[in-house]
Sequence to fold (1031 residues):
Amino acid sequence: MNRLKAIADGQDIESVVHDEVLSREPVLTIQDFSLYYGRKQALHHITMPIAKGLVTALVGPSGCGKSTLLRSVNRMNDLIDSVSIEGDMVLGKDSIFAPGVDVIQLRKRMGMVFQKPNPFPMSIFENVVYPLRIDGERNKSTLMQVCEQSLRGAALWDEVKDRLGESGLGLSGGQQQRLCIARAIASDPEVLLLDEPCSALDPIATSKIEDLIEKLKGDYSILIVTHNMQQASRISDHTAFMYLGRLVEMGPTSTIFTRPKLQETEDYITGRFG
Amino acid sequence: MSSSTRRQRSGNHLRAQGEPLIWLTGGMFAIACFMIIGLLGFVLYQGLATLWPRSYLLLGTLDGELVAGEYRERRSYVLSRQNLDDLLPKSREAAQSQLDNRSEVTSHQWYLRTGNFEVINRHFQFVPEISIASREPFHPPDIWLLERRQWGNLYGFPKKLSWELEQGETAIQAVRSAMIEAAKTNRLFERAKRELEQLDRRLSNARLRVREAELADGSDLQRLADDVLATAVNIPRVDDTLSAHLKPIIETASQKERKALEHLARETISVQSQQISINEELARLEQEMRSRSLVMQLPVLDFRGEVALSADSFGLSQTSCPEPLHTVLGLEGKADDYKMKVILISEGHFLVSLQQSNAIPVYAWVDIAASKNTAKIHALREHQVLLSDIVRLIEPNRLSWTGKLGVYGSRWWEFLFGEPREAGVEGGVFPAIWGTIVMTLIMSMVVMPFGVLAALYMREYAKGGWLLSTIRISINNLAGVPSIVYGVFGLSFFCYTIGGYIDGGPVKAGFTPWPETTWFSALALLAIIGLVAFTLSFLTGRSKPDGSIGRRLLSTGSGLLWLATLAGIVLLLAKTPMFDGFYQAQLPNPTFGKGCLLWAACTLALLTLPVVIVATEEALAAVPNSLREGSYACGAGKWQTIERIVLPYARPGIITGFILAMARGAGEVAPMMLVGAIPLTSDLPLDMEFPFLHGSRSFMHLGFQIYALGFQSQNSEAAKPMVFTATLLLLTIVTLLNLTAIWLRARLRKRFQSSQF
Ligand SMILES: Nc1ncnc2c1ncn2[C@@H]1O[C@H](COP(=O)(O)OP(=O)(O)OP(=O)(O)O)[C@@H](O)[C@H]1O
Ligand SMILES: [Mg+2]
Fold:
């Protein structure tokens, strides 16, 4: 517990990142990244690679900065005026925070799914093809094809194929969340960012989405925030444990959940604190 | 905790029970309801009742007068010693006895609509109940009500038609069928008059063209134009010889001037010949209109003489006309040919109808003297009415219930879709309705883009800060500025400054233009400033938004420069020496430099701008941020997000605000008085005449109509009924607009309701 106490006291600690993680080819590298909301620092010198084609889970107690980190990846935090950052992230070979980066172009390379489903007030079809629409795609058959593909990918196709013209708001919560996932994968992104996608859902919908993540793995690199340890252990390949804006330990999920290098991680995983 | 003694709580006094507060709040609620329902009910009753046809009655007073009118209502009033002097002797006596020793008592009087304005010089009459001698009012069954184009209503008995009745035709049938003919003639007459006006307009347009040529060349064409006109008068037709005739006169003028002068000559000649034929047509039509008339007997007494006739001659059983009566009235034929009907109006006062076989009866009024041996004979005043003047002929006392409904409907129809008659006191308010609608539509077309874009900027683009808050508060406060202030502003800014600028350039708008050299140097300077502003904003747009001081300075600087550029453009426009206005030739008659449709719409747009901005801002604020984030996460740009997500979601709210603004604008009167509404015009702001929408015309407006009729017309008592109908109409329009807003909001909102889970 002394590391966590040190963090709480505001001291810098060394994050432990396992070699198995470092040895994988990363799709996204976070390099000494810090973020401030006004004066308040929310992320402290985070350095971690996100492996290509795998699922990386972010766990940690509430308020430790998981969402903040996730939202920094596609620069969603630009929308908040008070935010300032230090450090950088690299997607593929391109810096994310370098001056002159085209944020819109950057976001087109990622898909994001939020904690609460947020389907747009338009038809199911239009919801799914929204990323293509804003790229100016007009070809009906292309749109239809992408729509079907994405909906199948999000395991929603069979449920909505007969009512693509109906409003996306008419779906159930779980369906709405899968619709948002379909929307996120419609533009065939390199990275998929999921922020507690199952927190508003019942167990059945949750398991459907977990299956889905399982299925998407390989094609997409996925970064997922979750509070549910079982879920993290079931679906992720790598797990990162964060605490008060700092990365504590990151390693292969099997290792983290069975014999982590740090006592603190084990305590958190097993629910002895947090 | 549990061991410590609990604080004793009392709960049993009055305030705790809250009874008085229920009474207080409930009472206030009831008062509010009462006031709203009272106001609505009042307007509704007065507005709906005005056009309902009433019965017409005749009364005799104690002093032997004949009182006649359409019965409106019985009103209470205070009878006091002071107003005894207004009464005639016998009525005064009666009043005195009623007063007894008190200084005043509450009494009643009847409120009658008399009509026949040109004969008796009033529209309404109050008859004190104490001076009424008749036991019952008499409702003459064959009284006619003629609603006329001029002079308002006329009540009377028909006496004579200017043409022969056909076999088996009654007078009313004859008049009704003749009215249809007359209406046709009337329409032709109106059309001819309009054509004449158009010809006049053509002539003045031709003159304008000459004036324009004059202005363009700075020459004086007055003498030439006179010569051209003098020549043109003598040429009967436009043909090839015209140019030859004109050539020597206009040789000296420039190409453009020659064209204008030739045009003037051609127009003069063709207008001349057409004018002659139209004037002939008008004369013929007028002849025709004069040929059909009818003579009415109005309930106004003309003393004819006192004759020796006893009271017995007018017994109700009497059926033949007494000889003296026949003589003094100067009737045709023999007295024996007349059948007499006698109606007792009041003690000693009779209305007598004398009918010769099947002809139209003649009426007379007989006063039997106290001695009962002589009688004063009065004829009813005769009055001639042209058939083409009659709009509607009703027999008010013969109307069945359905007949009344029919008249009511036809009056409403006329009210809604007809032209005003009698300076707006009678007839329709169609021009006012139309003016209100067109003005409101233009207003919304002006205010919508401004309001929505401004709100979008404030909500979606602008970074918060004290400046934005100040502006937002100011906008909210603008909604509370008295509307007359907008009127004054509109008049001085839109009408005189911008309108004057359009009419006659900077000079007319009150600016002194710069000399050309100064102006062009200023233009060059402005171009440089604009270029710098553009470069700066281009640079700031490119650089990374890192919140550094330098960048912030840069963006503030470019904003200020843009503002300076804008101000510079305005200044340059105001000071240009090269613009003389589009309507210079018409001056000193203003075209846009006065109150007119366009400026009224702009003024109202300004007035409703806060409503639109506030509503739009609220609607935008209600768009969940998660939707915006979702859109950005998909890689959408700012405008794409606004266009595809924010605006559709906010649309119900925006539309609601928009309709509320329309409702507010439609009901506004005070600014209208200053910026273009006038009480009477036959020109519509939007009609079939090129260019269809006439922004520079003055127009009629319902709200203004209410004010003008009620307080500005010569006879506001006569106009009062119209005031209430117009109020009802305006209220209906505004209510309909508001209901539409509510309905639309409910309907659109349903589309955005997410399912619950
Ligand atoms: N918009 C913001 N402005 C200021 N502070 C913020 C903002 N958003 C988050 N924070 C702060 O940053 C810290 C991290 O927040 P974040 O939302 O990333 O936590 P989290 O790990 O996602 O928590 P949870 O598991 O509850 O979602 C918190 O202390 C929070 O108070
Ligand atoms: Mg979170």
Observations:
- The radius of gyration of chain A is 19 Å.
- The pocket of magnesium ion (ligand 2) is lined by residues A 66-67 (CB under 6 Å).
